[in-house]
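User: quick one, sequence for these tokens?
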């Protein structure tokens, strides 16, 4: 692609940039068209002449890729890249890239936002103050839930990658004890690696930070929830399908688990009948851990750097190497 400006099409740019970032850096690399959202029946029409396609959640499967004759590069505007058929792209010599490491601290931050809400119920108590309850209270303080201190509690981290390690750092700063389960590692430095059953049985808080694979879908199921302490909390800021939603809702509603904090669900947006939407003591945020402005700014910078590297003949962050 030497000496030519490629046609770049962004299929679903709104979540990355709802208006507080700039597309100028991307536009400098080629003839750039940004669509806020693209439906499945609009992909081929919008991207038929594109050499470079960027997608966040729009699925580029084998059938779609086959209908894009000019396509030379696919960039995923995220870390997870399961929305693209990497094998079909590789057969065409098309590199697929992702954006690693842009949201580590933001995800760790939301993980603890969920945990702190579960243990202190800040939002609830602040709402009751606004409603006038403290003003009318006979005592100088009140609380509606047990207030739980994190110091000395055992945190079990499933997935000891960059995000898992960042969560472990914060946990230690709060005085928690940390151990981890990661089948890809044999050593985690000064953190104890353990097996999954021991981690689930011994942790006061379990937090998921592993990628979704065909092997670990439904990793947290009814049997494994039964291993956890009834006083334990479960957090998921990784991928929704790691957890059996029905089994988790049953565990929460029956009191077999103290609470859960979810930033991801198996289907997003969730259907109204997702049992976790009405489960007891289940906090759900709408997949926002990645979405701080700082994290999205880093994502944009890496996306631009990925394309520049490709145009220079040295693609980086390729997830479907040939």
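Assistant:
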């Amino acid at each position: 692609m030497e000496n030519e400006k490629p046609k770049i099409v962004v299929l679903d740019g709104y979540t990355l940039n709802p208006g507080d970032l700039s597309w100028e850096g991307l536009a400098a690399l080629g003839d750039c068209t940004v669509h806020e959202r693209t439906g499945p029946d609009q992909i081929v029409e919008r991207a038929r002449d594109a050499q470079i396609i960027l997608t966040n959640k729009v699925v580029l499967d084998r059938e779609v890729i086959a209908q894009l004759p000019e396509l030379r590069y696919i960039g995923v505007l995220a870390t997870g890249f399961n929305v693209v058929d990497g094998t079909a792209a590789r057969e065409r010599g098309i590199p697929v890239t992702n954006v690693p490491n842009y949201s580590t601290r933001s995800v760790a931050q939301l993980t603890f936002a969920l945990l702190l809400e579960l243990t202190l119920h800040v939002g609830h108590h602040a709402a009751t103050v606004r409603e006038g309850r403290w003003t009318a209270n006979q005592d100088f303080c009140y609380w509606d839930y047990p207030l739980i201190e994190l110091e000395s509690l055992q945190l079990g981290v499933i997935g000891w990658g960059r995000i898992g390690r960042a969560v472990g750092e914060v946990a230690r700063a709060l005085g928690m004890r940390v151990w981890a389960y990661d089948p890809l590692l044999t050593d985690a430095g000064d953190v104890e690696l353990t097996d999954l059953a021991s981690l689930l049985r011994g942790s006061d808080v379990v937090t998921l930070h592993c990628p979704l694979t065909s092997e670990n879908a439904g990793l947290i199921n009814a049997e494994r929830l039964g291993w956890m302490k009834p006083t334990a909390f479960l957090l998921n800021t990784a991928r929704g399908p790691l957890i059996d939603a029905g089994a988790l809702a049953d565990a929460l509603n029956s009191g077999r688990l103290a609470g859960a904090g979810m930033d991801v669900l198996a289907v997003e947006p969730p259907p109204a009948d997702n049992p976790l939407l009405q489960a007891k003591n289940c906090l759900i945020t709408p997949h926002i851990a990645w979405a701080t402005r700082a994290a999205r700014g880093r994502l944009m910078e890496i996306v631009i750097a990925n394309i520049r590297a490709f145009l220079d003949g040295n693609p980086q962050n390729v997830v479907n190497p040939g």
